[in-house]
Amino acid sequence: MLKFIRKSLYLVSAPARVSPLRYHYLIQSHPFSSSLESPNNSPNQHSFTVRYLVKSCGFTPEKALSLSASKYCVKFEATGKPDSVLACFKKHGFTKTQITRIIAKQTRVLLCNPDKSILPKLEFFMSKGLSSGDVAKMVSASPLLLARSLEKWIIPSFNFFSSLLRSEETTVSAMKLYSGLLLLKQTHVTANIELLREAGVSNSNIMFLLKSQPIGLTRDIEWNRTVLDEVKKMGFDSSKKMFVVAVHVLRAMTKLTWEKKVEVYKKWGWADDDIIGAFKIYPMCMAASEKKINGAMDFFVNQMGWESSFLARKPIIIAMSLQNRIVPRSAVYQALLSKGLIETKDISLATLLHFSEMQFLKKVLSYQKEEAPELLKLYKENMDLAK
């Protein structure tokens, strides 16, 4: 029986090789036939849809069969409408990968009238300042936008957020950061904004949260209240921006994830007070992955000989890129020290790491004119090695 099921699954997953009659037999004899084909759709429709999804939309046979079997999928026997939909996407700069992603989530879009259902939405987004590339990226990330009414949902939602953020430009920026912004329920957003105001968070900081982590404003209000209380207990001032940064970080992780990162820091010698203290200085140190934390600690403690407690006082360093900043700049710093070109009392590695790329190249490399070519070569070599 198992052998038969496997054989039938293989044949069904490659319908282009199977005649409609044979395909119909396999579907009917398959133990999950009721979910693979509805009474309203003929085997020809089902087979044709699967072949089209594979040939024209880039799906594997297995994925195409899965989509075609879904209750949310459509069945068709002609390519007219699907071809016009694909042509519309391609004309407006959507890549093959983006189109495939959209159809995987919103397969029914293949049977819409693109001039009425797709084009007006794309034109609306571009009229607000989004480039065709921005629109393609946003829609492919949140295909549900195509299923929403332009007049009844998208435009009112855009106007709602433009009112909250006080400009269309800011709303567009927020849409670029979070593609599903216009899909958020306004009642949830409004309730959570009121909660933040009651906690003493300023409007400017509320806008920061809305732009940086809008999905957090749709979470359960009691859960958000718990996060706010936790941040207050840690000693953050709700009137300061660091308060909402801490909220942003805590809302983005589960309690278990927080506890795991606490254990990683403790492994490197930090006490509970060190962890909370570092979080208060730079909350994003807890947003770093466990791998990132271990990598930074290993480099500074085991290779550079630093005390881990120093990093607790300079936690921003942990969030810096090990490959693009820490390793190459440390190599240049060590070279400058060994050549006697600088002394630790003149400039520390921690300070050097804080420089912007322009500051680093100007203050360190250009000041050592004779050594600059060699130092620059060393800098680039270490950046390449660290990748």
UniProtKB/TrEMBL annotation:
Annotated organism of origin: Rhododendron griersonianum
Signal sequence bounds: none
UniProt entry tagged with the keyword Transcription: yes
Entry superkingdom: Eukaryota
Alphabetical UniProt keywords: Transcription, Transcription regulation, Transcription termination, Transit peptide
GO molecular function: nucleic acid binding
Protein name stated in the entry: Mitochondrial transcription termination factor family protein
Family that this chain belongs to: Belongs to the mTERF family.
UniProt KW Nuclease keyword: no
GO BP, one annotated term: DNA-templated transcription termination
